[in-house]
Amino acid sequence: MPRHYEIDSAWRASIKREPNGRQTVTTEAFVSQLALINFHWSCRQANQWIETYVTVFKDISTQEGENRTFMLFNPNGGR
User: Fold this and answer.
1) 43, 67, 68, 76: which is deepest, by most CB within 10 A?
2) Burial of 78 by CB count in 10 Å (0-12 exposed, 13-18 middle, 19+ buried)?
3) What are the structural domain ranges in the chain?
4) Are residues 55 and 40 in contact, defined by beta-carbon separation less than 8 angstroms?
């Protein structure tokens, strides 16, 4: 049975940290992490959660569609 408090852990686990310090997340990576904890969300559901609960990442997607890319733009705090 999925636990809602684990969604935030899945979000943090899906963050990719590059050598130059840039931190990005793709919707696909987030959905994959959610599947590991028994949450089976569509990309649309994941994007809605990100837009609602995550305030320090902005959308930097270069293509249309539900698989979006988000980048950390406020490393000093927030979620």
Assistant:
1) 68
2) exposed
3) 6-72
4) no
